Amino acid sequence: MSIKYDDSHLIPIFRQKDLNNFRPKTVESLNLLINRNGAGNDFLGWLDLPNQKINELSDLLEVGNEIKNSNDLLVCIGIGGSYLGAKAVISSLMPNNNIRFIGNHLSPLELSHLLKELKEKDFYVNVISKSGTTTEPGIAFRIIRELAEKKYGKKSKDRIIVTTDAEKGALKKLADQKRYRKFVIPDNVGGRFSVLTPVGLLPIVAAGLNLKSILKGAKIGLEKSIVDNEENIAIKYACNRSILYSKKKKIEILASMEPQIHYIAEWWKQLYGESEGKEGNGIFPASVDFTTDLHSLGQLIQDGERNIFETFIVIDNYSNDIQIPYDNENIDGLNYLSGKKISFVNMKAYQGTRNAHEEGKVPTSTFHVSELNEENIMELLVIFEIGVTLSAYNLGVNPFNQPGVEAYKNNMFKLLGKPDIT
Predict the structure, then answer these.
(1) Angstrom distance (rounded) from CA 120 to CA 225
(2) Is position 269 annotated as part of the catalytic site?
(3) Residue pLDDT, tens place only, 300-311
(4) CATH class of this structure's domain 45-211
């Protein structure tokens, strides 16, 4: 199996009553999802995406391969679900790539650095927004579009690609006026579930990743997650989270032993935070990169307030590994490790960390990824998508809306003096 979930250390701390209560509840939540009659069922289009056929995506492949083969940069402009899925997949598998993500904050510093790079290199732009009026990507697109028009003149229309609503919105209107190439964000797929729409797939293809393998992994993850059996990882993960939340464990720490998959955790935080955090409910999703953060947050995890639980992601096998050399002087005292691979030491660090945290009364479980590749990463993401839906249904909240997101925007608009805000 490419993805395994080890909750063997959790089960002994649960009472049989906990499992008897929450597993049937989680299966009931799965049935709500499969039958598409739960809250937010008009946003379940993402369930169909793993079954897309390659020939249905020919236009996307053509544009993605055009960008890839040009060796130019692709600037992806978007925020939240409009960039996190693509960045999670691309940065995990191709840390050195031709994709630049912007429009996900309001700092002038990173944008300034990017503009300097774009003046020196050729680039395409993919602006991703349902409405085209979201502040952060809107500002970035206005600035980068101006640069593209100055640099490429009339040919800039061939360099700008829009991913937006099929029928309405400011961005759709602009794309029609300027005759930009367009891809559609489906109405029945929310941003944080959109990695398998053009939102995520165009940048993924442009980066050079294998679309066939991406879809294969997604299909495997879906098929494994929608059956009621003891091997269903999504059921086990959601059930365990619900039990821990009932025991006042209010913070989940996603702990990776591989910094290259840092943005998997960033994507996961949005997915779980926006889906669960409603009506006074929800587990706070946090993340750490080990072993680095053991030297900063390790003390709190080990000895701090016991309102946390920990979920590890571990890569079991590495295609690139390094052997530790022997040193005749051995001043650092590390010769006992000579001849061993760094991945071996990393695995022992994981095992030692997990044992230490359990001794510190932190409940733990682990996702094991057999190796880093397109299939496995996408399988993991789909398992997480199913898992959060079940967790949210267990809580009695709609996994697919985000009513609280607008609060900061309305306050910001008032302070900025936006004309149509009262």
Answers:
(1) 47
(2) no
(3) 999 999 999 999
(4) alpha beta
